[in-house]
Write a structure and sequence with these properties.
By secondary structure, the chain is α/β, with parallel strands linked by helices. The protein has two domains: 2-158, 3-Layer(aba) Sandwich (Rossmann fold); 167-268, Orthogonal Bundle (N-(1-d-carboxylethyl)-l-norvaline Dehydrogenase, domain 2), CATH 1.10.1040. The chain has 13 helices and seven strands. A seven-stranded mixed beta sheet has the order 2-1-3-4-5-6-7, with helices on both faces. Bound molecules: 6-phosphogluconic acid. It comes from Allokutzneria albata (Kibdelosporangium albatum).
Length: 304
């Protein structure tokens, strides 16, 4: 099948390669001419035979919205757009409405697997009309892992369902990573455990907590047993926040995912204003000692 693919970064580049290995005709476009097969989005569209299918794989938010708008001008009735980035599901509903007015179909697809997807395949969660899903199935089949389709692919529901599912997947990812991370810190703090990497490695087989994330932690510890080449500073790109927001919207208790999200925020603080307030209050009511700020640390003083 022929596919236009917009965005050839870490994900899109490998997806083009996997699709080509499966025999698909992929025309890729990226602003970086070194990897692009087309000189512009218009050139990409011109290189495709109708009815066209174009997969978007650019950062969520403004870059995706802009690409959808441009494609809305360039594509024709009967064409299909698949949004494969990490968009918020509410953005998909707007994109679909905008394109539907022009007779252009829309699917949203949550894609999991990161840089490993080229070899392992990508877990896919799709939202949209069944007719469009069926039409793009050769592409989904090439991208998903080998094995039964239902173990690496889901048509989750209407437009938005794919990215809603991926959002929840990522919320779970936050919680799982946080649990492994806390276990790592506790093992490391212990006086009795002397070989932390070996313990974690031993968990890879037979245990209840074995998983791919655990395998990746073992991999990281193989090259840096104390993880001291890194700072404990963790970014987030939105999915965890949206998961917590949706948990609130649906009154679903999500204490683990929320705590994992907030742990990332805490990781970015050199010093915590909230904890300065706790120290100050403890000092106020109980006369408990405080650690004074040094001349270069923090802007506030806890007082005594
Ligand atoms: O399933 C995946 O392949 C990952 O979840 C992938 O989508 C990406 O690495 C995360 O979006 C990172 O998310 P944070 O930046 O929020 O950790």
């Amino acid at each position: 099948m022929q596919l236009g693919l917009v965005g050839l970064g870490k994900m899109g580049f490998n997806m083009r390669e996997r699709l080509r290995r499966a025999g698909h005709d992929v025309v890729g476009y990226d602003r970086n001419p070194d990897v692009s097969d087309a000189s512009s989005l218009a050139d990409l569209v011109a290189k495709l035979d109708g009815p066209r299918t174009v997969w978007i794989m650019v950062p969520a938010g403004a870059p995706t919205r802009q690409t959808v708008e441009e494609l809305g001008e360039l594509l024709s009735e009967g064409d299909l757009v698949i949004e494969g980035g990490n968009s918020r599901f509410t953005d998909d509903q707007e994109h679909a409405k905008f394109l539907a007015a022009k007779g252009i179909g829309y699917l949203d697809c949550g894609v999991s697997g990161g840089v490993w997807g080229l070899e392992n395949g990508y877990g896919l969660m799709v939202g949209g009309d069944k007719s469009n899903v069926d039409r793009a199935m050769p592409i989904f089949d090439a991208l998903r892992p080998e094995g039964p389709r239902e173990e690496g692919f889901a048509h989750a529901g209407a437009v938005g369902a794919g990215h809603f599912s991926k959002m929840v997947h990522n919320g779970i990812e936050y919680g799982l990573m946080q649990a492994y991370a806390e276990g790592f810190e506790l093992l490391d703090a212990s006086e009795v455990v002397t070989d932390v990497p070996s313990v974690i490695k031993a968990w890879q087989r037979g245990t209840v907590v074995r998983s791919w994330l655990l395998d990746l932690l073992v991999r990281a510890l193989d090259s840096d047993p104390e993880l001291d080449d890194l700072r404990g500073y963790v970014e987030d790109s939105g999915e965890g926040r949206w998961t917590v927001e949706e948990a609130i919207n649906h009154a679903v208790p999500a204490p683990v995912i929320s705590a994992a999200l907030f742990a990332r925020f805490a990781s970015r603080q050199e010093d915590s204003p909230a904890m300065r307030a706790v120290a100050a209050l403890r000092n106020q009511f109980g006369g408990h000692a405080v650690h004074k700020a040094g001349p270069t640390s923090g802007s506030g003083s806890t007082g005594s």
